[in-house]
Structure formats: structure tokens, C-alpha cells
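Here's my example:
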Amino acid sequence: VVAKANVYFDGKVVSHTVLFAGGVKKTVGLIYPGSFTFNTGAPEIMEIIAGSCEVRLKGETAWKTYAAGTAFNVPGQSAFDIKVAAGIAEYICSFG
């Protein structure tokens, strides 16, 4: 686990990087209420483990709701908008 936190949007999104044998990388984090846009390099799988959020992938017009126990895929070299209305959304992001 990388001890230094990844802090975005004035602390409204915070994660820690976890590195696994073989080069696998994941981040584990929290998203506080607000609306945020993230760009991707590698493809990502975002697993929502607590709370809920709404997501709109680049090129789409509709927002989709994701609650604890669900996940969504984001292509590499893309972007997505994510918003949390209330509470905290907790996630695990897998890269590659």
C-alpha cells in the first residue's frame, strides 16, 4: 500500500494505491458529495463497495446509478463523470 494518499478536488475524492505482485494496481477510495470528471489512461473497473453514485461515461448522455455491490467499466483513454448526492461512495478501482 502506498502510504501517500491520492487527493483530488480539494479532498472530496481520496484514494490509496495498492500494488500487487505481477504489477497489478488498484486504488481504494472515498468520494464525498459533489460532481467530478476523471480521465482514464488504462481501462478501469470501478466497484462500488458502499454508498451509491451516478455515472456518465464519455460520449453518453444518460446517467446510470450504481449502488454498493455493483460495478462499471471505463475504457482506456476516455473519461467519465461521477456524482454523489449524499453520504460517501466507497470504491475499489482495478486498472488494466
